[in-house]
């Protein structure tokens, strides 16, 4: 889009056991329609097939490496299903994977220093963002995880929510500089501007939530949020570009 | 990326909203709002002056609301009339009907005519009261609305045993003069969101609160019942007006469809000045 670059910090593609989902081609078609330049994509099958979904998301982003980056799912370090940290990040980079994700509920483990410490410390050192949407509605677990890894770069996104979650999100934005809030489903009237006034414009990220949500609704909300153009540009895409650059 | 987005298509409604925010020849009526604090959420803007400021900056001509404290608390509807009087340009109200207070229903409806033009219709919230919309506790209000052709905004939700699809179809057939606004469009029950329109006597409209933004949902409703049967709403102060408008503009429907949803259907129902 002329004059404003959107980078979608939260969308999902791929099939699950419940049925087919959009692929990269369909996502790009929707992004083109709405004027969204780039996207960070997670595979829909992470919950039921973490190892395979890592392979599949790499294949999807390879179809449009200049526009899509992927996220890989972590599993506990004691069970060697994921390459160790000294290899993992090089492999990720070679495959267009720029972030990490996790799903301790579906993968039946406790997400903490004992299980993920090596990965999380290595990610913190490299400033590789870790996606926390698995903790949506699991607020005590989210708070505990972030507290245990205060140096990491995090991106939290509510997967389903439409009701404003200020009571849950604000304490995290207030206390952890590496905590970023991706805005899909955050529909609070003028809430984006309120969050910027409290915590600055660097911690918020435009995210579509596709395919649950469409790309356009939050674009208009952000465009007319009442923020300064440079803050709008940061939230639309500048912050996500910065996070990925810092990770490089 | 070389394609032109729908926001940038010259002459389109989406482009007008994208560029200007407010589009004078496309007013917006928000037919589903609230007012006041709520237990489940932090609202910075839920008092009348703040709500009206938000409506103004988004170009919303009228918000028709029911007060949270009437629906969930002990506030009486007459206090809400005072709020509307204080903001006559923007605010209109639904008279909140709580089936657990039958005396209040009769008292308030006896005053309905004197509360016009502030009072536009009634508000039912059956899911929360756990009283089916077909229950005898609501018959007095339904008869009242049926005799006068008054709108009732119903909270509706797919699968609910209080205001789900089959019950809403039954009640809309039984009271053909009531103008039923199906709040949330019987969310996720696309069979009944279609049937409540196609199997009734032209007295049902689907209301969009919580839907604009859902991928493909508005397209589906327009295909099933036509855009002439769909009203815009946001649950304000729950959802941002620009987010909701953005959700309608993002749908793959025609600009005529979008205008129907944002204002034309309401003006056909209630006129241009109300
Ligand atoms: Zn409501």
Quick tags:
heterodimer, A: about 250 residues, alpha/beta, TIM Barrel, four-stranded parallel sheet, 10 helices, 8 strands, about 45% helix, about 15% strand, B: about 270 residues, eight-stranded parallel sheet, 13 helices, about 40% helix, about 20% strand, binds zinc ion
Explain this structure to me?
- The complex is a heterodimer of chains A (248) and B (274).
- Chain A has 248 residues and is α/β, with parallel strands linked by helices.
- Chain A has helices at 24-34, 50-61, 85-94, 104-107, 113-126, 139-148, 166-175, 191-199, 216-223, 229-247, and strands at 7-13, 38-43, 68-73, 97-101, 130-131, 154-157, 179-182, 204-205.
- Chain A has a four-stranded parallel β-sheet with strand order 1-2-3-4, sandwiched between helices. In chain A, strands 5-6-7-8 form a four-stranded parallel β-sheet.
- Chain A is globular, with a radius of gyration of 17 Å.
- The mean pLDDT of chain A is 97.
- In chain B, strands 1-2-3-4-5-6-7-8 form an eight-stranded parallel β-sheet.
- Chain B is α/β, with parallel strands linked by helices and 274 residues long.
- At the A-B interface, helix 1 and helix 9 of A face helix 1 and helix 12 of B.
- Bound molecules: zinc ion.
- Zinc ion binds next to strand 1 of chain B.
Give me a quick take on this structure.
By secondary structure, chain A is α/β, with parallel strands linked by helices. Chain A contains 10 helices and 8 strands. With 274 residues, chain B is an alpha/beta fold.
């Amino acid at each position: 889009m002329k004059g404003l670059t959107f980078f979608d910090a939260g969308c999902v593609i791929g099939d699950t056991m419940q049925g087919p989902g959009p692929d990269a081609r369909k996502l790009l078609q929707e992004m083109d329609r709405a004027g969204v330049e780039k996207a960070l994509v997670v595979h829909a099958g992470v919950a039921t097939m973490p190892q395979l979904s890592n392979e599949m998301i790499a294949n999807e982003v390879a179809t449009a490496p200049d526009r899509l980056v992927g996220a890989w799912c972590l599993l506990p370090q004691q069970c060697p299903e994921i390459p160790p940290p000294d290899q993992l990040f090089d492999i990720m980079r070679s495959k267009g994977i720029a972030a990490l994700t996790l799903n301790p509920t579906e993968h039946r483990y406790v997400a903490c220093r004992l299980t993920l410490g090596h990965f999380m410390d290595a990610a913190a050192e490299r400033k590789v963002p870790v996606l926390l949407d698995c903790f949506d509605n699991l607020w005590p677990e989210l708070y505990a995880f972030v507290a245990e890894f205060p140096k990491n770069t995090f991106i939290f996104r509510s997967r389903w929510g439409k009701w404003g979650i200020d009571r849950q999100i604000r304490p995290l934005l207030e206390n952890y500089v590496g905590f970023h809030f991706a805005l899909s489903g955050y529909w609070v009237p003028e809430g984006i501007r309120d969050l910027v006034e409290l915590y600055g414009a660097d911690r918020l990220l435009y995210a579509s939530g596709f395919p649950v949500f469409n790309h356009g609704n939050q674009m208009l909300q952000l465009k007319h949020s009442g923020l300064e153009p440079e803050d709008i540009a940061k939230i639309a895409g500048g912050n996500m570009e910065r996070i990925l650059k810092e990770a490089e | 990326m070389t394609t032109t987005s729908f926001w940038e298509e010259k002459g389109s409604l989406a482009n007008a909203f994208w560029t200007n925010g407010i589009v004078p020849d496309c007013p917006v009526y928000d037919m589903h709002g609230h007012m006041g604090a709520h237990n489940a959420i932090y609202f910075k803007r839920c008092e009348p002056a703040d709500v009206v400021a938000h409506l103004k900056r988004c170009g919303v001509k009228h918000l028709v609301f029911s007060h949270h404290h009437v629906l969930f608390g002990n506030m009486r509807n007459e206090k809400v009339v005072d709020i509307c009087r204080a903001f006559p340009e923007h605010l209109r109200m639904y008279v909140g009907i709580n089936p657990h207070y039958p005396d209040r229903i009769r008292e308030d409806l006896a005053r309905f005519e004197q509360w016009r033009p502030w009072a536009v219709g009634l508000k039912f919230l059956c899911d929360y009261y756990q009283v089916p919309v077909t229950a005898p506790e609501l018959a007095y209000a339904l008869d009242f609305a049926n005799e006068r052709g008054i709108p009732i905004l119903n909270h509706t939700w797919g699968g609910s045993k209080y205001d789900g699809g089959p019950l809403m179809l039954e009640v809309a057939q039984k009271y053909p003069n009531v103008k039923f606004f199906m709040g949330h469009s019987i969310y996720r029950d696309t069979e009944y969101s279609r049937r409540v329109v196609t199997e009734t006597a032209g007295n049902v409209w689907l209301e969009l609160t919580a839907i604009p933004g859902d991928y493909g949902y508005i397209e589906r409703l327009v295909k099933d019942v036509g855009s002439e049967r769909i009203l815009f709403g946001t649950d304000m102060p729950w959802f941002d007006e620009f987010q909701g408008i953005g959700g309608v503009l993002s749908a793959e429907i025609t600009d005529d469809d979008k205008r129907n949803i944002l204002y034309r259907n309401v003006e056909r129902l209630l006129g241009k000045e109300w």
